[in-house]
User: Fold Glycerol-3-phosphate dehydrogenase [NAD(+)] from Chloropicon primus.
Amino acid sequence: MRVLGVGHPRVLDTWRRAQAVCFDVDCTVCKDDSLDALAGFLGKSEEVEAWTTKAMDGSTSLLKSLEERMRILDPSPSDVRAYLETAPARERLCEGVEELVGALHERGVAVYLISGGFREMAIPVARALGVESKNVYANRMLFTSDDETGLPTKFAGFDRSEPTCRQGGKPQVIRELRKIHPYETVVMVGDGITDLEAASEADGADCFIGFAGVVLRPEVQKGADLVVFDFGTLTRELKRHKVCFLGSGAWACAAAKLASENTSRLDTFETTIEMWVYEETYEGRPLTEAINETHVNPKYLPGVSLGGNVHAEPDLETAVKGSDLVVFCVPHEFALGLCNKLEGLLDKDAAVISLTKGMRIRPEGPQLISEMLRKKLGRDCSVLMGANIASEIGQGQLSEATIGYARADNGKIFRDLFQTPSFIVTLVPDVEGAEMAGTLKNIVAVGAGFSDGLGYGSNTKAAIIRQGLSEIKELSTRMFPSVRPETFLESCGVADLVASCYGGRNRKVAETFAKERGERTMEELADDLLGGQRLQGALTAEEVYSVLEVKGWVADFPLFSTVHGIIVGQLPVESITSFMGSG
Ligand SMILES: NC(=O)C1=CN([C@@H]2O[C@H](COP(=O)(O)OP(=O)(O)OC[C@H]3O[C@@H](n4cnc5c(N)ncnc54)[C@H](O)[C@@H]3O)[C@@H](O)[C@H]2O)C=CC1
Ligand SMILES: O=C(CO)COP(=O)(O)O
Assistant:
């Protein structure tokens, strides 16, 4: 398979899947061309470099250039030895190549050096990189030897049977390698026209990455699938993201189950997920101990296996250490406290995603959880919202979700982390719209629960949902004029509203509240009915009402205001339908 298109994401995908990577040596792995450097050492630079350039830009054949350069150089064995002593291989390496080769070896990728230069110069380079000499393909110098001592004395040409001495040599080496090893994907990295050839012939490399950190050759740039100017770019692409979950409630566990399926399956992630757990005692022992032993959170999501690769950790610092993808999922009343504890702990490259539905109320005005995380932690923060009742997702039922992102690259990484065949994720460039919808629907779900508790039917609930959607959209737009109207048609909008008004904890607790006509508070009922899980809607109704009051908007949001009035006992439960006909 040849991947086309400069910088195409498929090239990087091929790169990540490579089972063997073949590097050119001169001006790729090394900052210089070894024969030019030897020429400099022997004072013959000008003549030799002219022939090097001709070969690299394709204006003469490789064989002819090599013959001419060696004729001019005419090196004795002691010349070669003396040169190698003055130019230790490690000092000739391009920046970042050792780290790259190390990262490839760590992934179990075979690394080869295929050079149009000579083994005498390439072997020390391979040694410096930890590449075995059997993985070096290069030309071989021939020397006449002293009749008496048998020691090499004088240069006598080179071994023309080595494929690398002529055009088409590099693809030939790769073809032979593929006959011996069943590599599915082979990538060639180099700076010259002979490297480019490696990927242009059948059974050669699957993809050619041009390295322009030393020289940028227009012909090579034109033909390359991708051109990079430093090796760090390629090393970063190999990096496996390390995931940490902050929170271990019902949704955190269901979402961790989705993520654990993906981190076990995809090369882009480290398999193990750290999950920070707010430690408590469950049936006489630490909850983390129970989770790590059974892979199930028996208190918050019983009966659902998170996957053996999720490790529960009570210490926050240990849990986040080294993670570059941080999933924030605690009930919103704990968000600020946790965020404060996180300051200074996150990896400098970490990206955060919040699954928390709720907001923070401060004297200077409300703040979304994503904004709080972004500001306090100084990291990009996406949100994942949607019609996602945890227990259903835990059972593997089909669901959709929405990721609102500020940085598209992070949005995509998080989609890869969560999306499964039964959990379909859509990306929207609208963090505020998605998060406001996810937060405010909890108030509407409480209203729907009141309606159910009063014994009202589907038409009444549909009216509550309609009014709820309208108020969600209006308040979101007033608070964040940049929100996109179409966001409310995604899973985070209308779908979450419907799911939460028919299922979910807010509806359930509110139903009992209405049946009992407010005999027990919502908080007391939540404690009785939810087994430690937290109710978000009542607190959010109070928080939103405080915003409406400050802004003088109470009359514009009759459903939100009425739900709050009922919760605090200022209004009878029956007033839940008072918005109807008021428009
Ligand atoms: N459960 C669900 O179906 C869904 C929940 N969400 C949202 O996810 C967020 C998290 O909810 P769940 O995972 O369902 O949690 P939960 O309500 O099931 O569990 C409560 C969690 O709070 C933790 N906790 C208790 N005291 C704490 C403290 N002082 N500091 C930090 N954590 C503490 C408990 O350990 C437990 O993990 C909420 O904002 C919720 O609205 C979103 C979609 C679905
Ligand atoms: O957010 C949810 C579903 O998307 C869960 O809602 P509840 O908190 O009402 O269970």
User: Anything to note?
Assistant: Residues 1-6 have pLDDT under 50 and may be disordered. The CA atoms of residues 199 and 205 lie 4 Å apart.
